[in-house]
């Protein structure tokens, strides 16, 4: 049986975005998102352990950029990013946005 390792509830909803790291940059789709990280769907991907920045477009003029570390890569599918620790204000703002988006379906 698979044990759930996530510390934060995730929002499994696609968002457009882009990522940038030492190995390159590319447009992407964000497959799921939580306060702790996200899964980036893209054919081109960085290496595990690489530092990257992910910009997520929430619609309209609302977008946010997160710095993080690639924790694993699924070749030709994408990669998972664990966000660097957020300050209390940013964490609260993102939490409120995720809650609003989760109820908006």
Record keyword descriptors for this entry.
105 residues, alpha+beta, Thrombin, subunit H, 6-stranded antiparallel β-barrel, 6 strands, 16% helix, globular
Describe the 3D structure.
There is one protein chain. The chain is an alpha+beta fold and 105 residues long. It has a single domain, classed as Thrombin, subunit H (Beta Barrel), CATH 2.40.10.220. Helix content is 16%, strand content 48%. The chain has one helix and six strands; from the N terminus they run ββββββα. A six-stranded antiparallel β-barrel has the order 1-2-3-6-5-4. The protein is globular. The relative contact order is 0.20. The mean pLDDT is 86.
CATH topology: Thrombin, subunit H
CATH class: Mainly Beta
The percentage of residues in β strands lies in: over 45%
Distance between the termini: 30 Å
Please, how many domains?
A: 1
Considering the protein shown, what is the CATH homologous superfamily?
A: predicted glycosyltransferase like domains
- The general outline is globular
Instruction: Find the structural class using helix and strand composition.
Output: alpha+beta
Query: Runs with pLDDT <50, length 5+?
Result: none
Number of strands: 6
Rg (C-alpha, Å): 13 Å
CATH architecture: Beta Barrel
Helical content band: 10-25%
Q: Trace the largest sheet across and list its strands.
A: 1-2-3-6-5-4
Major sheet summary line:
6 strands, antiparallel, barrel
Mean pLDDT: 86
